């Protein structure tokens, strides 16, 4: 509820009393846990990031294949933001209202949780299932695609279902844009130089 109120009204226009009324507690109770409106807002953003992490973790809990885990993460990520558009608005507001923060909450959570995915990708590289490129490059590109898709959907409106968007991202990332013939030709050119 707190996220929805901040998303609808904006941080500057959200009164803590409105939040208290909405969740059915006294304003003093909120201030007991969150001494400032800023702390309440940032806690709402943090809660959203923890919910995203839980959704992603649940999506791969029963999946053994690392490539399928990667695919499930893309789907779960886009599904989360599709179901929680208020949270996208909070990410925007956080950046606009709290420029003094060294790192937005989104990136704090991403950086804290990326190690597992680097390990997973290193295993895929070692097994010969993924090209031998730095895993930070892979997670950077894939992460930027998903992050950009989430914001594009928010600002421009989603033109495709999140399932189709996930499939498009996965197809281009897993298969690339070049045909087999073109990849062979480029490889031959590189060998000839």
List keywords for this structure.
193 residues, mainly alpha, Tetracycline Repressor, domain 2, 10 helices, elongated
Quick summary:
The chain has 193 residues and is mainly α. It has helices at residues 2-9, 16-23, 27-33, 37-60, 66-83, 85-97, 105-126, 135-156, 162-175, 180-192.
CATH C-level: Mainly Alpha
Tally of DSSP helical segments: 10
| Largest sheet geometry | none
Number of domains: 1
The first-to-last residue Cα distance is 61 Å
DSSP, total strands: 0
What percent of the residues sit in helical stretches (DSSP H or I)? over 70%
The fourth-level CATH homologous superfamily is Tetracycline Repressor, domain 2
Structural class label: mainly alpha
Notes on the protein architecture:
This protein has 193 residues and is mainly α. It is elongated, with a radius of gyration of 20 Å. It has one domain: Tetracycline Repressor, domain 2 (Orthogonal Bundle). 77% of the residues lie in helices and 0% in strands. The longest helix has 24 residues. Helix 1 crosses helix 6, helix 5 packs antiparallel against helix 9 and helix 8 packs antiparallel against helix 9.
List strands and helices in order, with pairings:
Layout: H1 2-9, H2 16-23, H3 27-33, H4 37-60, H5 66-83, H6 85-97, H7 105-126, H8 135-156, H9 162-175, H10 180-192
Helix pairs in contact: 1-6, 4-5, 4-6, 5-8, 5-9, 7-8, 8-9
């Amino acid at each position: 509820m707190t996220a929805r109120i901040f998303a609808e009204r904006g941080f500057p226009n959200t009164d803590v009393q409105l939040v208290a009324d909405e969740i059915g507690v006294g304003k003093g109770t909120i201030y007991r846990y969150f001494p400032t409106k800023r702390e309440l807002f940032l806690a709402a953003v943090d809660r959203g990031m923890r919910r995203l992490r839980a959704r992603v973790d649940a999506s791969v809990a029963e999946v053994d294949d690392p490539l399928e885990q990667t695919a499930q993460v893309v789907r779960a990520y886009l599904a989360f933001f599709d179901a929680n558009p208020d949270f996208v608005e909070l990410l925007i507001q956080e950046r606009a209202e709290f420029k003094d923060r060294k790192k937005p909450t989104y990136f704090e959570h991403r950086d804290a949780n990326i190690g597992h995915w680097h390990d997973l990708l290193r295993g895929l590289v070692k097994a010969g299932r993924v090209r031998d490129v730095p895993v930070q490059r892979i997670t950077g590109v894939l992460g930027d695609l998903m992050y950009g898709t989430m914001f594009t959907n928010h600002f421009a409106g989603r033109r495709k279902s999140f399932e189709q968007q996930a499939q498009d991202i996965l197809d281009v990332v897993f298969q690339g844009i070049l045909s087999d013939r073109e990849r062979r030709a480029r490889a031959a050119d590189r060998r000839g130089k």
